[in-house]
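Chapter review. Work through the record for F-box domain-containing protein before attempting the end-of-chapter questions.
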Amino acid sequence: MTMANVGFLSLPAELICYILLFLTPRDLCRRAIATCKTIRDAAQNSVQIQHKLELFSQGFTETITPGQDSIDFFRKNNRLKKSALMSRSDFHVNTVFQEAVLAVHAATKETQSLKCGLWWMSRKSDLLIQECNTNTTQTWSNHILSPMPQHELATVVVDPLQDLLVTISSVDSIDVLDVVQAHHVFWLEIRMLSAQAPHPDSACTSLDCSHSFNERGIHDVMFMKEPAICGDRVVVPYCIYADDGGAELMFIQVVDWRRGRAECYPVGHQARNWPHQNNFHLIDRQTFVVIDLQVSINLYTLQEFGGPPQCRIVYCFPTYGSLRHPSCVVHTTPLVQGTAVRPDLMPSYVSFLESQIMVLEMLLPVLPVVLVIDMAIFSKNALHPEGLITIPWLDWGPQHTCCFPHDPSHRISVFGSRMAYALPRYRTPTPGHRLEALSTDGRFYVHIWDFNQRVVARSRSISDSNSPDHLIRKPPFLAHTFYKSDFSSNHFYTTTVCHTSFPTRDFEGLFLEHDRFTLTWVRPDAVDIQVVSPYAVPETKALSCWLRDYIKLITNFWASMTVGIISHS
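Structure tokens for F-box domain-containing protein:
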């Protein structure tokens, strides 16, 4: 067996890769590549193997299985090819949808969302919904969204795939006289998105969510962010504030919207000053993280109904060394799970957690930064049965993060392993260079940064490292005065930029999804929505342009030679 292994590994890399192509992607990842450095190096330099692994990471294989829909397969493969155009040095785009939605007193980017090609914007008076594949526009008035008397609409969340709309209505404050009895804190409304009617799969239309208080007195409920929907589960994070200056505690309501059940659980995490200091994100149906920039990222797992969440891993940030409090905006891929009521909106693929990133827009004092985190650290493989584990920054940060200088005016969107970044310049910024803010009347360019290491390996094998347009970059060495440590990284990433520039006046929203990105401009009376998708410049057109320039160069050369000869004569 040993001699056979030595003989195989002594083969040329091209022949090893040819043999490896006969393996399934799962066997490539878990057996061959994971157990042998020689095979791993050969696979990383093979474009064909990297393409096969990329298809696998996006949820489908290269060949059509007997039970697979061939039309669906070719649609997926076509989208993957379009998506691959964003991994070149630059790309051109076509406008696939453009619409001006009339809106009075339009809101800002914080109230805009997009999922599966459906865009919506929540305002004080109503909810505006636009399908970015057709000209279909819906408007939900506020009295429909919040029908409960003496309740104010707090938040709205939409799941287009399940044709689901969830709203939360709450009162300003709660007077607690009896600590034994559970008190009503908010109403959760469940409706169909398409028909403004009760959802047929839900056990009830309205759900009374209650909370048990430990102290008497006046308490306020502050929602940390919009509820997160993952299949049949809705998770609502909120904080309880006591008017007498008591501790601000964090809780979650876990709702099974199909069965009409809700349970309240303490998270065991104390809020600091304001809810936006503690960012909540639901990773999947059973996992969520709480992000406190001053201390750590805390990974929790949810049990089935009847048990509180358990903190499993604490990822520590560098030591905090400032009296000023930071804030953070979290960008991740929207959750897409559950039975699809709207199959026409079903995305072609949804990348696995191991090939996704989480971007923290960290608005730190003096120097804002963007921290890109490999979400593989939140997968089930990272959990250990022995209980809570604390991981210092040096044991996880340099291996699984990338940090860049940032300006709050730059827009960010995340899908899978890619980050769309609205920057004021066409060229990719050099490592460590801080770009200026977007001007109010200028132009901006959309850059696509991909942190998928398979894409990096594929780009490394086909690109020229000596070229000024080299795609592969490495994050800069970044020392920050806010933390008593540096944000160094061992990760590489690929960069590309869209040829087309866009106006910054009234620009508000940027949403990356699959092979396209959506941009919005909010004006006083309307919202302009534009959806663009990359396309390849035909080789024949590029060749004809090259021939035209070559002929022009030769013609000018001979003309100058002729003039010179005549002048000399």
